[in-house]
């Protein structure tokens, strides 16, 4: 097995950037999920999971121009759905995001927050097992992984990695739980089309053991904690111990 793709999402609920190598820190991939769009009225973090208008944030892309200080607004570049680019330090940026969503928003660097763990791993075998008919890259991107692993075998192989040590490059990770899915996987973003049936498909193909059949959790991929920080690169061999 080997690392075939690396993805960073500098802004929560935005599209991310593909990397050739990444620094893995104790709390995850450097610069990942560091920025958040904030509802100016309520102070809540804007997430496409909760408010329909905020789903348009998924149509934006974000990347970091420099890794030295990912919290520096000058290095955060945002590409809007119409192709216009802006930066985190541009005073026009909040207005452009408000124009897109119809709500007053601000952009802030905050302590990194994740759903359940710092890193999200996904294998090509698991995505193939869904049989969605999407092109391979589209199928992978729908699930917004940090680390894509080209895996031997068939099926949801990463489900067997829970509690084990996963080593690649100079990094060691410990998968802690399967990645439960939500409405995000049904929404369109960049080249990924909407698929209203995706939650049902994941549920049918990968039922979680020990849950009643009437309430299966739609899971694909695994969340992982960082056991040893270091550098991870595309092409690194990956070993599960």
Automatic annotation (TrEMBL):
Transmembrane segments: none annotated. InterPro entries: MoCF_Sase_C (IPR005302), MOCOS_middle (IPR005303), Pyrv_Knase-like_insert_dom_sf (IPR011037). Coiled coil: none annotated. Residues 89-241 form the MOSC domain. GO terms for molecular function: catalytic activity; molybdenum ion binding; pyridoxal phosphate binding. PROSITE patterns: MOSC (PS51340). This is MOSC domain-containing protein. It comes from Rhodococcus ruber BKS 20-38.
